[in-house]
Amino acid sequence: MQEKNDRDFLQATADLNEDAVCYKAQMNRSACGAQTVACAIKTAKILGSKKGTIIHQSSSYDPNEIEADGMVGYGSVVF
User: Helix 18-28 and helix 34-46: axis angle, to 10°?
Assistant: First the structure.
């Protein structure tokens, strides 16, 4: 479930949908700093971006493959 929530958040970011980013972060607890991401999206739109590209997705589970309650996801999107 964690991976799907992270992927959905990253896809909303790549789609330049700041409302969905904030909603998904709140409803799924899938991101810290969603408002900062929303501001970056708004800025990207003002500067002419039409779409972002997801260039990375991983989690703290990946290096050791040991599932834990405190896993966090990481992702990168370029505008």
Answer: 170
Instruction: Label residue 70 by pLDDT band (50, 70, 90).
Output: low
- pTM for the model stands at 0.83
Burial of 63 (0-12, 13-18, 19+ CB in 10 A): exposed
Phi, psi of 66 (to 5 degrees): -115, 110
Residue 18 sits at the vertex; the CA angle it makes with 17 and 21, to the nearest 5 degrees, is: 90
Question: Residue 31 and residue 14: Cα distance in Å, rounded?
Answer: 15
